[in-house]
Structure formats: C-alpha cells, structure tokens
Specification:
The protein has 203 residues and is α/β, with parallel strands linked by helices. Helices cover 36% and strands 20% of the residues. The protein has a 7-stranded mixed β-sheet with strand order 2-3-4-1-5-7-6, sandwiched between helices. GO terms for molecular function: peptidyl-tRNA hydrolase activity; tRNA binding. Monomer.
Length: 203
C-alpha cells in the first residue's frame, strides 16, 4: 500500500517545539516546506493539516494538537474522513531505543511505552500502521525518561538526528509509491554503515 497520510507526533505549544519528543513534528515541517503545503488548524481533525505534493503524489500531513497521549483522536478523525487505511498511514515519532543519528522503518509491532503510539493503536483498533522511528537515544535511567524527552537534544545530538531525518526524507519517494521494502532496506543499510565498528579482540 502507498502511504497517503503522514503523521508527525509531538506536543503543541512553544515550550515543546525544540524538545526531543517533537521529532515527528520536525519531519512534517520539513515535508511541508518541500511540498509547498501550509499546515492549518482543522478543529474536526484536532490538528494542523496540509496536503503536500511530493514526488508526484498527493499526501496528507498531520500534526495532532491534542498532546501526545491523545494523538489517536486526531489520526482516526482524518483517516476515517478521507478513507485512509491503517497500512496507508506513516507515523513519525521519537524513539528512545534507537541511538541519535539512526532511523528505522517498520509496520506494526508494539508501542514500546510510547504514549502517542499507544493511543493511535487504540483508536485505529490495530497496530498495523507504518512507523518511522527517529532515534533520540536513552538517558540510561528509566526514571529520567520523561525529563529527557521533554528537553532539547544537545547540539551534537541534534546534528545526528537532523542527518537521520534527511536520509529518511531521501527515501520518501519509495514510501509514497508503496515500495516500503526498498525504503526499509536502504534506510537500515545506511544506518548500519554509520554505526561504530567494534574492534575485534586480539588473539
């Protein structure tokens, strides 16, 4: 299935704009600029919505304005109105379990404790939507997670995250054409090349 709706997850409000938890919003903002789309507040969709023309395809862009833990309300409202199926939806979000500088693409699976994914899954009644997971790294202590995601990345982390977003954006053509396998393969191969190689133990 080709992607018809791209949802970026984040929290509304100026105080959250630069925080790690808003990585999904950052990606949507870039796509809107590239596709010449204006994101406007649509109360019936509980979010900022725009239609972009990217790589010869029309695609809906959505930034829910419900706060993260109620993102599903916005997603399901737009998906039902425009008859977009779950596997035609790509949700872009921050991911603690992936280092900054890497991004992963997958269909379905668990929510990893991510409140935005959890609520979307509940509203769509299925986990089978696509996810673009933008790595932000982990603070190392579970008790620090909330504080960590609600703070801006360090300068060097931001550069790594920006790089991963560009690599994912370069594969958007495949996603919009429904060739998710190629997009996944190239994205994950690029990430593997960027991982530091462990030195082999000396004999």
């Amino acid at each position: 299935m080709a992607i018809k709706l791209i949802v970026g997850l984040g929290n509304p409000g100026a105080e959250y704009v630069a925080t790690r938890h808003n990585a999904g919003f950052w990606w949507i903002d870039e796509l809107a600029r590239e596709g010449g789309a204006s994101l406007r507040h649509e109360s019936k969709f509980h979010g900022l919505v725009g239609k972009a023309r990217l790589h010869g395809k029309d695609v809906w862009l959505l930034e829910p304005q419900t706060f993260m833990n109620r993102s599903g309300l916005s997603v399901v409202a737009l998906a039902q109105f425009y008859r977009v199926l779950p596997d035609e939806i790509l949700v872009v979000h921050d991911e603690l379990d992936i280092p900054a500088g890497q991004a992963k693409l997958k269909l379905g699976g668990g929510n990893g404790g991510h409140n935005g994914l959890k609520d979307i899954q509940a509203h769509l009644s299925t986990p089978n939507f696509w996810r673009l997971r933008l790595g932000i790294g982990h603070p190392g202590d579970r008790n620090e997670v909330v504080n960590f995601v609600l703070k801006p990345p360090r300068k060097e982390e931001q550069a790594l995250i920006d790089g991963a977003m560009v690599r994912a954006q370069n594969l958007l053509q495949h996603m919009l054409a429904g060739d998710m396998e190629t997009a996944m393969q190239q994205l994950h191969t690029d990430d593997a090349k960027k991982r530091p190689h462990k030195k082999a133990p000396e004999a």
